[in-house]
């Protein structure tokens, strides 16, 4: 398996070099040269596998034997050894047509742990076997930062800097990042929104001299390993439903940066027979507008009760566009240039028909989000976080008669008590989260100024 850039101007790379590159050197995103297809017979054989066993099976198609099996196995079992559920991502049946896949049983109570616990182990492994200096740089709308920091804190040979939008993440999200005092961690709280943070990150990775001099590595979902690790729980959830091969299975996914839903798209390309992929977002509904109209146009930023999806520029959209354009790197590059010059992309005709065949999408309003939280707590005794509530609302909008739905629970509700409290529901915090409020914080507040951020990075990375 080799990996290429969506924009076609990077020499093909192996698995580990793709991990280290993160954002492609031509500004594109790395994708496999050819997507492996899993046969129905193999899928049936996988039905009895544990999450860890399934992870190893799927990754075996992508790692090119660059990592010895026993080394990969040790990383996988170490990564998921600290999850609170033995299944790693347990599937809960809510009613006859709805299951919830709980992705929040990792150390930071969010779905990002599933990929980032593994990535932390992988980066540590690469640092040791290659003698590589690993300086991780990322931006977060809340959950990525905490999960990434947790994955690499205290690890030798690795430093990590995370940018987050000041005052625009939940208090628990902020505390999970900023109460970490390991010397290899730097938190920059940026006066701006997530898109401002992400823009700086992309510009720094596009500066190849700066990227090389400071050994920058990506932890955001621009790194293909994040995407691949997330495909595992799509397969795992589907295979947990009895008789799923004879049912129409829809999957509803809270998604702001297009990474989680793109992992589902990749799983479907690999042969997982998902019926509908449903994008659930909030009032920052660029993805809904694209699916409904064919126009991808970043709009004005809106703060919502589901802040991890308060995003207008979806980083992984380029990967989907690449496949939509039949893997034509020239056309893809032209579209991305148009986005830079015109501020929007429009697809029509057969391309637009394909978009609507690939996805359904719903932008959930704030009040609908809260109403959904209240409804499911009252009717089923099941408390949703606001992002998961958006996924449930989208499931209700698009699942038809005779269809079975899986909605991803992307975070524990305790991470977003500000929203939960508005419904009148009082929740008990897990002990690990309650303890955060007693710890001192360690972060540097900076202006949305690239030069100042660069100065902070230079001092930190050395």
From TrEMBL:
Q: Give the cofactors, semicolon-separated.
A: pyridoxal 5'-phosphate
Q: Where are the transmembrane segments?
A: none
**Reactions it catalyzes:** O-phospho-L-homoserine + H2O = L-threonine + phosphate
Coiled coil: which residue ranges? none
The UniProt keywords, alphabetically, are: Amino-acid biosynthesis, Lyase, Pyridoxal phosphate, Threonine biosynthesis
UniProt keyword annotation of Amino-acid biosynthesis present: yes
Q: Does the keyword Amino-acid biosynthesis apply?
A: yes
Tell me the InterPro entries matching this sequence: Ser/Thr_deHydtase_PyrdxlP-BS (IPR000634), Thr_synth_N (IPR029144), Thr_synth_N_sf (IPR037158), Thr_synthase-like (IPR004450), Threonine_Synthase (IPR051166), TrpB-like_PALP (IPR001926), TrpB-like_PALP_sf (IPR036052)
Q: What Gene3D superfamilies does the record tag this protein with?
A: 3.40.50.1100, Threonine synthase, N-terminal domain
UniProt EC number: 4.2.3.1
Tryptophan synthase beta chain-like PALP domain: residues covered: 98-316
Q: What does the record give as its pathway?
A: Amino-acid biosynthesis; L-threonine biosynthesis; L-threonine from L-aspartate: step 5/5
By its UniProt entry, which SUPFAM superfamilies does this protein fall under?
Tryptophan synthase beta subunit-like PLP-dependent enzymes
Q: What does this protein do?
A: Catalyzes the gamma-elimination of phosphate from L-phosphohomoserine and the beta-addition of water to produce L-threonine.
Q: Which family does it belong to?
A: Belongs to the threonine synthase family.
- Its name, as the record gives it, is Threonine synthase
- The organism named in the record is Paenibacillus borealis
